[in-house]
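User: Show me a protein chain along with its predicted structure.
Assistant: Here is one chain, sequence first, then structure tokens.
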Amino acid sequence: MELSTDRLLRMAFDATADDPGDLPDGMEERVMARCRGGAKPSQHPDWAGPVAGAMGSLGAFVKTAAELVDLLDSLAPRDWGRPTRVEGATVRDLVEHLVGVERYLLGQLGRRPHRHAPGREDHWPVTMSEASDLAGEPDTFVARAWWFEVLAVVAACGESAPDRQVVFHHLAGSLRGLLLVRTFELWTHGDDVRHAVGRPLDLLDETRLSLMAGELMRVLPLGLALSGCPQPGRTARIDLTGPGGGSFHVALAPGELPGDPDISLTVDVVDLCRWASNRLAHDDLDVLVEGDRALLEPILVGATAFASD
């Protein structure tokens, strides 16, 4: 999907009204012309990558959100009430949840009232509370509300430095890293919707898989610590196979440099990402293990530390 300025604006206008006639006369044409003329939201210069056009974490988030809004737009009315893989949640519940996630994040970025929700277990309750005003609204209204909040998040993130420190429940780190966590979340919930309505799951593209897998490997030591199972002095070699994969040497405790590997794992990159999102059962994860097998379980547990639902 090409995410040109035209594409994003058209999607925004689509979200604004069921019928273009609901828009003020000439509004769409005036805004499109102004943007083509060079006017656009300010963006922090540090978002520019070393290679022109290369996708970074902000681009990955935007592309994944755009694909999800297209998916929601294609749903039949009966699809919104279908149960999902999230216990007790329908498709509509998931979309309301995502509205709340964007609003919570905007609070952390100073664009909405701040909500104190420091625990991983706070994620679902606080986000549903943030979206409580949507109760009783039509399903398509909820989808539009989510897209409006996404646009606000994109604007707020684009104007901030990528290394801005942000607290997201139990996680604290850079905005760049948080957007990859959010890309994980949108991809996961998109697949929750696809699973609920009987559509093929999304394998993603090589670029986004590489970004997500690389970030997961970078924060894996922290994941082990957050899960209460760090392994000081130990190192893993993790070979992720398939498009977007790679080989990584990972220290198994925060603040340490990797040494010679005590364990070597070979696993499909998509499977590991789905495992990290709590969407793949233990028995369905095919991992080739060499070395100290006692380290496998802490690694797998640590990989899920950043998933909240």
